[in-house]
Design a protein that fits this description.
This protein has 117 residues and is mainly α. The protein contains five helices and no strands. Helix 3 (47-54) crosses helix 4 (58-64).
Length: 117
């Protein structure tokens, strides 16, 4: 597939480590926003109805669904998940550039890890 001008421009921008990090972080926020919006829509709820069930404002739901918003608290995400019959799962992944390994590899959810001896 032929690259568009945007693809070429993005590749150039991603060579800048500062831009690349900002781009990655924006993608993480985008993922959270899209997941909340998709779950809400699957539940057949408007932002206003979800807000009513959470005893908050429609503006707050809009903020949670915005890819620019990075103020999600774990407690608030759990409240949203409970109303939408979902669960929150946070995963820490080791930095690929890191030489020293400080964490065990990610295990499947709810699998007990072998204890260190």
């Amino acid at each position: 597939m032929k690259k568009t001008n945007f693809d070429v421009h993005l590749e150039e921008q991603l060579r800048d480590p500062v831009f690349a990090e900002r781009f990655k972080r924006a993608g993480e926020a985008w993922d959270v926003a899209l997941q909340i919006a998709a779950l809400r829509q699957q539940a057949g709820l408007s932002q206003k109805e979800l807000a009513r069930r959470l005893k908050t404002s429609q503006q707050q739901i809009s903020r949670l669904e915005s890819p620019d918003y990075e103020g999600h608290s774990l407690a608030n995400l759990r409240r949203v998940a409970e109303v939408l019959h979902a669960r929150v799962r946070v995963v820490f992944e080791p930095d690929e550039k890191s030489v020293k390994r400080v964490a065990q590899p990610i295990a499947p959810y709810r699998v007990k890890r072998a204890s260190a001896k």
